[in-house]
Amino acid sequence: MPRQLLTDTHWEKLKTIMLSFSIYDKPGLRQTVEGIFYRLRVGCPWRDLPVAFGKWNAVYKRFNAWSLQEKLRGIFQALVIEPDLEWLFIDGSIIKAHQHSSGGAHENPTAIGKSVAGNTTKIHMAVDAGGLPIQFSITGGEVHDCKEAPEFVA
Question: How far is the C-alpha of 114 from the C-alpha of 76, rounded, in Å?
Fold first, then answer.
């Protein structure tokens, strides 16, 4: 069994928040969430997710559906409680996108831009004085941090 991230206390708090976003408390919900956390922490492909978390395709479908419905962003914002705004730190990280990641025909806009390194995405994040994330945005890799900073300090 792979190492899990959530304690029982943390899970109960997170489950309450998830229920408020119309995520149903199905029998395998905790294992699905643990599978998502495991995949994000380790960085493995979805197909290599350990069987202990359930079928990889089911975990992927839940993650994808919650992402498209903005439920994960809402959960993130619900977890930000009383940030210490004495200091606000803003930084961005560039992630190289797969060569086939853009150009598909769909109506949803993608946050993939062209840069010297090819297709890239950039995660802009603001953290409080304690280093806890309080806000983020995802843009194309060519967008400079100072373009996103006004949204974080407003």
Answer: 28
pLDDT over 70 (residue 56):
yes
122 and 60 in contact (C-beta within 8 Å)? no
Residue 74 main-chain phi, psi, to 5 deg: -65, -40
Tokens encoding 17 = 């928040």
Following CA atoms 34, 39, 42, 46 in sequence, which dihedral angle do they give, to the nearest 10 degrees?
140
**Is the entire prediction scored with pTM above 0.85?**
no
The token pair that represents 133 in the structure block: 């994330």
Which residues are registered as beta bridge partners of 91? Answer: 125
Residue 27 DSSP class: T
Given a contact cutoff of 8 angstroms between Cβ atoms, the answer to whether 38 and 2 are in contact is: yes
Helices 71-79 & 56-68 angle (0-180, nearest 10): 80
Cα dihedral angle (96, 138, 21, 25), rounded to 10 degrees? Answer: 10
User: Quick check: helix, strand or coil at residue 154?
Assistant: coil
Residue 103 has pLDDT above 80, yes or no: no
Task: Assess contact for 149 and 90: CB atoms under 8 A.
Answer: yes
Contact between 19 and 74 under an 8 Å Cβ cutoff? The reply is no
The pLDDT of residue 126: 94
